[in-house]
């Protein structure tokens, strides 16, 4: 799973990310990165999207690496292309792709369900699993859409860039890979943003807040505290039709002051996002909530 460090001084990205000398990506990687590879998907017509850094885990299982392939928009529906339903995506009892039991494997997804349950006031936040199933979280005709800024799965955000990544992508190091993705993969998703015009994109992981803003074509405008020392920053994009927020990482377990690991912290985050978004959009913020038909 991803790891999020404590906040550090904000460094502003400037200039064209593609202007510096860097390795040339492979043609197959370029096609893959300019697709939905590395994303769970959902309903892009939903007014609230979420964006993580990357899938957790590794690119290889049982010694075999995933192919670089173009991927269509997926969803949390159990069909011929997807392995898990909404219920399974939120389950505590889960085996990994190689069959190994992974306790609390879906804690990040569970906290996304906390977020949507509290945002839309579906019910008690503790009933997030039933509410997510009822409202079709990240399903094709349901609520929410889930993306990742970077396509390749990593065990940690600071994971070593191994030779297998170089061979598949053409990049010698992770920084060049990330900068290329922010510019070129970002262009793919910015076009999607222009088409669907979501009200909110919630990005998760403040260590990548500069990249998130650039990825979605936004400039950070403000930063505020919402729960003790926890900070939220935001900016506007898409001709002011979309607000991009960057929140601390969602994780399980207590005791991490810089992470969202409790219902109380999540509720404080949602309250602050609603306050900022309502000032910008007015009361119609949640009017487009797309509920899965009975």
Can you write the helix and strand succession as a string? Answer: HEEEEHHHEHHEHEEEH
Measured between the Cα atoms of the first and last residue, the distance is 34 Å
- Report the principal-axis shape: globular
Gyration radius, in Å:
18 Å
Number of helices: 8
For the largest sheet, list the strands in their spatial order. Answer: 1-5-2-6-9-8-7
Class derived from helix and strand content? alpha/beta
Largest sheet: 7 strands, mixed
Q: Residue ranges: pLDDT <50 for 5 or more in a row?
A: 1-20, 289-294
Annotation, overall tally of beta strands: 9
- Percent strand equals 5-15%
The percentage helix is: 25-40%
Mean pLDDT: 82
Question: Could you list some keywords that capture this structure?
Answer:
294 residues; alpha/beta; 8 helices
Descriptive account of the structure:
- It is globular, with a radius of gyration of 18 Å.
- A hairpin with a 4-residue loop joins strand 8 (230-237) and strand 9 (242-247).
- The chain has a seven-stranded mixed sheet. The chain has a two-stranded antiparallel ribbon with strand order 3-4.
- The protein is of the alpha/beta class and 294 residues long.
- It is built from eight helices and nine strands.
- Helix 3 (107-119) crosses helix 8 (263-281) and helix 6 (174-196) crosses helix 7 (209-215).
- The two termini are 34 Å apart.
């Amino acid at each position: 799973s991803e790891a999020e460090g404590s906040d550090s001084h904000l460094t502003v990205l400037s200039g064209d990310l593609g202007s510096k000398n860097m390795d040339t990506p492979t043609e197959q990687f370029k096609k893959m990165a300019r697709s939905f590879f590395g994303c769970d998907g959902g309903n892009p017509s939903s007014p609230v999207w979420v964006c993580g850094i990357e899938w957790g885990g590794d690119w290889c299982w049982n010694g075999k690496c995933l192919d670089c392939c173009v991927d269509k928009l997926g969803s949390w529906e159990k069909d011929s292309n997807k392995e898990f339903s909404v219920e399974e995506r939120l389950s505590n009892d889960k085996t990994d792709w190689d069959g190994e039991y992974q306790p609390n494997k879906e804690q990040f997804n569970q906290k996304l369900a906390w977020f949507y349950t509290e945002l839309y006031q579906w019910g008690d936040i503790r009933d997030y699993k039933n509410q997510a199933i009822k409202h079709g979280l990240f399903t094709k005709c349901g609520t929410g859409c889930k993306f990742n800024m970077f396509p390749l799965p990593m065990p940690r955000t600071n994971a070593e860039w191994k030779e297998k990544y170089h061979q598949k992508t053409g990049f010698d190091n992770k920084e060049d890979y990330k900068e290329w993705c922010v510019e070129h993969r970002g262009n793919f998703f910015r076009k999607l943003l222009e088409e669907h015009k979501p009200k909110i994109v919630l990005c998760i992981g403040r260590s990548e807040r500069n990249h998130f803003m650039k990825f979605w074509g936004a400039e950070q405008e403000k930063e505020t505290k919402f729960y003790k020392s926890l900070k939220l920053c935001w900016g506007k994009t898409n001709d002011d039709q979309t607000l991009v927020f960057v929140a601390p990482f969602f994780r399980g377990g207590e005791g991490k002051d810089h992470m969202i690991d409790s219902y109380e912290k999540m509720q404080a985050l949602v309250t602050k996002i609603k306050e900022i978004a309502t000032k910008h959009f007015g009361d119609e913020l949640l009017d487009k909530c797309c509920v899965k038909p009975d």
